[in-house]
Write a structure and sequence with these properties.
The protein is mainly alpha-helical. The chain is 56% helix and 6% strand. It is built from 4 helices and 2 strands, in the order E-H-H-H-E-H. The chain has helices spanning 11-18, 24-37, 41-47, 59-69, and strands spanning 9-10, 56-57. It has a two-stranded antiparallel sheet with strand order 1-2. Helix 1 crosses helix 2 (24-37). It is globular and about 30 Å long. InterPro entries: DUF4248 (IPR025342). This is DUF4248 domain-containing protein. It comes from Xylanibacter rarus.
Length: 72
Amino acid sequence: MECFKIRTYGRMELAQAYCPDMNPRAAYHKLSLWIDRYPNLREQLAAIGASPKSRTYTPAQVKLIVEALGEP
């Protein structure tokens, strides 16, 4: 098993890393729900530039997600 690397990820790409057995849209929806359920994570992401229209997560945003949710 490979070690998860912090780098820029497409939003669907990161979602599928967390939910590999789901189709990309369903995986992204699930990841979004997890982000919303984790206290203040959505706000922390927004503070460093994430928006609902963003198609990618920067390494800093990926780091916040992994710190909150754990490695995929």
